[in-house]
Amino acid sequence: MRYSINKPQVSQKQKNIFSYILIILFGILLANCEFFTEPESNPPEYISQNYWLNVNGILKIEISEFIAESDIISSVEMIDDGDTSVCVVEIDDSIVTITATGLGSSNILIKIKADNQEHRIYLTVDVLSGYPVNLFMGEYFTLELSEISDTLPDYDSLSVVLDSLDNTVEVLSIGSDYINFMGISPFETTGEIQYFLVGELKDKSLLSFNCKIRKVVLGEMFTNDNCAGCVEGNHKVDEIIENKEESVAIIRYHLNWPDPNDPMYLYNVAENEARMYFYQDFFSDDAWALPNFIVGGVENPVSVETDWEFSVQSLIGGDASVYIGHEVEASGTDSILVTVQIYTQEQIVGSYDCYAVVVEDNYEHSGGNGENIHHQVMRDMEVKEDIAIDGNIEFSLKLLRPPGYSLENTNFHIVTFLQNSDKEVLQTNIDHPIIE
What is the pTM of this model? Predict the structure, then answer.
């Protein structure tokens, strides 16, 4: 036998009334509830600091150095205590104590929470056998004796003794309270300063030398004397040079639009255009817009305000593997002879072209865009192709001498750089000399 029950029918009016009742009840519920949310945490703040110690030296760092004066610390946590064979780290509520135990380098990470802000503190501690002297190959470095110690002995003469087994650094001159060095090759070595009084050795200061090769980034600017947008671009490049003068070299090529009579274009049409076509992939197919800024041969940042300097900075970091030095002399009545040295401790894969360029600063010309002074204007360019980089090599390139050029005229500079078939610029030079 089958039993069945008929489903009661509900009218549309009853459905609407029921829906209104649910809405009212839900509103009452919301009105009487309080919602609590965790306060939002800000993204972590990252801070990096470098310190050095001698073996058995002790360094005490106030934790308050890393946060705002008004912040209240809620917790301090060691995330990574680094290499304990180099140094031992202890933390209490307000002080980080680092004790050097052996030569080397240690990377330490500490997390601090203060006023709902997390701070991640990265400490690099170098334990050395002497006062650190960090310098670059081909560059001068002045060591002020007051930097070594506040309590130097009485002395009337100084002597510098270097490790005789290598040629990392050269002593150029010794003054009464300073010593001038030059980096010769990328190695680490030690030495000492000896203090004498009436011929008697009174004390010594140990030195720890670390010589590296500076990475110099090439920036190439394409512009025109009647390009309105180029004014902002040129000013940004000026700013980049001012901020990173030792690590940046600039060449500016003038093209023939919007003004086909730009005199800086007309002076060397062939090489201005050759460089433009060399980088044609970085120009738009339908509108070869200016300004155009190319960094390291491979970066083509878009935004003048936010991208240009970032692209330069991103290529500056790290040690270079190749050194370029050059020397310049007049040749005949119309040429400049550039002798180039390329040095590396390892063979570099592939072949490279080496360019030499003469550029002119402070060139006076009233452009249609309001710019009256023009810098790093490309005057002449020469290239030696297919160079195999291995060890220490030298060769010469000859440039045409522009009007007004002389070795004494500081408005003119020689830029040399290495570039491969992928257009990557490996290294650049303006001021580094040839190292004997």
Answer: 0.77
Output phi, psi for 302, to 5 deg.
-95, -60
Q: Give the pairing of strands 335-344 and 322-331.
A: antiparallel
What would the DSSP string read from start to end of 104-166?
Answer: EEEEEEEEEEETTEEEEEEEEEEEESSEEEEEEBT-EEEEEHHHH-SSPPP-SEEEEEE-TT-
Alpha-carbon distance of 297 to 369, in angstroms, equals 27
| pLDDT on residue 243 | 85
- State how far the Cα of 234 lies from the Cα of 221, in Å rounded to an integer: 8
CATH fold label, 45-128: Immunoglobulin-like (2.60.40)
pLDDT tens-digit series, residues 343-372: 998 889 998 999 999 999 999 999 999 999
What DSSP letter does each residue of 169-186 carry, written as one string?
Answer: EEEEEE-SSEEEEEE-SS
Predicted pLDDT at 36: 41
Query: Which amino acid, residue 147?
Result: E
Only one residue has tokens 């060095």, namely 181
Average pLDDT, the chain: 89
- The Cα–Cα gap between 32 and 52 comes to 61
Question: For domain 217-429, which CATH number applies: 3.40.50.2300, 2.40.50.100, 2.60.40.10, 3.10.50.40?
Answer: 2.60.40.10
